[in-house]
Amino acid sequence: xxxSNTQYDTILRDYNQKRLDSRRIxxxxxxxxxxxxxxxxEMDDLIASISVNRAxxxxxxxxAKENNEEIADILEDINTRKKLLLTSAGxxxxxxxxxxxxxxxxxxxxxxxxxxxCFKQAxxxxxxxxxxxxxxxxxxxxxxxxxxxxxxxxxxxFKKATQKAEEFVQAFDYDYRNLLFYxxxxxxxxxxxxxxxxxLLEKGxxxxxxxxxxxxxxxxxxTFQKGGKDASVNPFDDIYNCDLLIxxxxxxxxxxxxxxxxxxxxxxERHLRRKxxxxxxxxxxxxxxxxxxxxxxSRITSNYELCKLSGQDVRxxxxxxxxxx
Length: 325
Known about the structure:
60% of the residues lie in helices and 10% in strands. By secondary structure, the chain is an alpha/beta fold.
């Protein structure tokens, strides 16, 4: 995952902004609590005073062990009363804890000398321009999943596919799996893929999303551009090694022998590395076989859980409903 200095600085600036935002939120919340709960501020002031006195004693060499134990008990009692005051007023006990987008690295991007998983994902987002999918994931996730737009056999299919998606997330850390969502247009294939992506990103896993056309365009550019394999950013490293690869709308790209061979190489290499992949396609199984060869079809049907979806185009249905309002 090669970055230019400018790209690296862009990510670091983003982390700095996150820390500034966190500090601002904490300051606003602290002012709010101090205004509404003056006793809380008094207890904070008391803790600060005790801490200053202890520091002075250490500097003067007059600190006694028995005093330390007594002070520790006092501080524990004050902190207990602070928590009780917060919860009694309807606040979370953690309301005044620092607010981080990543609790692992506390929005620094690093854990010790190692890059945090969120930093690695930030690199992927930057290199593969995934900021748009982040916006989509804010609405397309398991929390917003609904079964109200399907009925009959279509609903049965969607519920089974949803169950497979949820099991995929739950077992991700210990059970290698792949998913193929296939069927008619607008039935929830991309939505379920995004639900999985959102859940795994929240767990700290690296995810790369590609439309099928975008994937093969990126591979083609790298393969045939001037400089070829000597180019600075090799997409194969990330495509083969990210925790989850999503290939959306397989079948919408211009398919030729190059695309077919690269699709097989991608699926085969990720399978050998035990890296999970999700594919969505509007093609049925026979169309997949005809378009991508028996070899690709065999790789998919052998190593993927097949989730068929059917029914009306939910997106068109929702648009019609909105137009009537």
